[in-house]
Design a protein that fits this description.
It contains ten helices and 14 strands. It has 310 residues and is of the alpha/beta class. It has two domains: 212 residues, Rossmann fold; 82 residues, Alpha-Beta Plaits. Bound molecules: adenosine-5'-diphosphate.
């Protein structure tokens, strides 16, 4: 396996009873990449992370982290990965320092190494003056930052982030992404992300969509959105059937959610102002915009061809 491959899987499969949580997964992620695995609840994202971090054993297939086969030496694998889950691994009744010292001891860091690393990480996260504060007194965003610090104390080669910003407000989510970006820049870490907030995955070098344990189309976020459509046209109308009948021959069938219709527009020279005039009173509002990763997700999992609604 080439040196610059951080994560590789071959036919990785996990079956729970009758449920195939992950089926024949083949991945190859270069070192230093910011990779996003996206998909609906129950798609198999967490199970993939659990297998890659040796928390659960694959039913078949294999995987390598930084060239090491995960089934050969699970302990070595656990040392070379960092993990941040939605459910915090921290003790809220303890201080930041106590939590991080405890984790450092588990990673066999010497007290000097631990102190230096804790200082370094808390200054990245702007928490250096809160080292003695109990977690219970911190904001949700600050606690999540400490979770990430805990996950990277031992300078892992690969950091797994499973829905790391769930439940955080926008400013805190942005702060978390600034920290992750800095860790990637300073430490060359490979980051493997799963998230429900698809706009956050726009910063990934590569994203793959996952459904029912199977890898769907993936690519660079910008290329995927460019390939989807030139524009997304969103129409709100009290007459969705009529407007659908009128516009489907021109643009193809929309995704419908109650009175909201979303059309993919391939041509980049549509006169939307003219269209708005033509539709007149049959619509309440319309807007057009460039596609984003949410649109990729919707058109992959809720498209009219699949007979699903958004
Ligand atoms: P995601 O992270 O994408 O939400 P999961 O990996 O958690 O998806 O789940 C994938 C599928 O595997 C789901 O159908 C889930 O119910 C099932 N599953 C996950 N963990 C277990 C388990 N420990 N035992 C039985 N079924 C499980």
């Amino acid at each position: 396996m080439a040196n610059n491959v951080a994560i590789k899987t071959q036919g990785l499969t996990k079956q729970y009873g009758q449920t195939l949580a992950v089926t024949n997964l083949d991945l190859e992620i270069e070192a230093g990449q910011f990779y996003g695995l996206l998909g609906p609840n129950g798609a198999g994202k967490s199970t993939t992370i659990h297998m890659l971090t040796t928390m659960t054993v694959a039913t078949s297939g294999d995987a390598w982290i930084a060239g090491q086969k995960i089934s050969d030496d699970p302990v070595a694998i656990r040392r070379s990965v960092g993990l941040v889950f939605q459910d915090s691994a921290l003790d809220r009744t303890m201080s930041i320092d106590e939590n991080l010292q405890f984790a450092a001891a588990m990673y066999n860091l010497s007290p000097d190494e631990a102190n230096k690393r804790i200082d370094e990480l808390l200054s990245v996260f702007g928490l250096q003056d809160k080292r003695k504060r109990k977690l219970v007194s911190l904001s949700g965003g600050q606690r999540r930052a400490v979770d990430i610090a805990r996950g990277v104390l031992h300078k892992p080669k690969v950091l797994f982030l499973d829905e790391p910003t769930i439940g955080l407000d926008l400013p805190n989510r942005r702060a978390i992404w600034r920290f992750v970006e800095q860790l990637r820049r300073d430490e060359g870490m490979t980051v493997f992300l799963t998230t429900h907030y698809l706009e956050e995955a726009a910063a990934c070098d590569h994203v793959d969509f996952f459904q029912q344990g199977q890898l769907q189309r993936g690519g660079k976020p910008q290329e995927l959105t460019q390939q989807l459509a030139a524009y997304i046209l969103e129409v709100n109308t009290p007459n969705p059937e009529n407007v659908t009948a009128q516009l489907t021959p021109i643009f193809g069938a929309p995704i419908r959610e109650d009175q909201d219709l979303s059309f993919k527009i391939s041509a980049d020279d549509v006169d939307f102002h003219q269209l708005q005039q033509t539709l007149g009173d049959s619509i309440s509002s319309m807007q057009w915009r460039k596609p984003n990763l949410n649109d990729i997700y919707l058109w992959m999992f809720c498209s009219p061809e699949q007979g699903q609604t958004a």
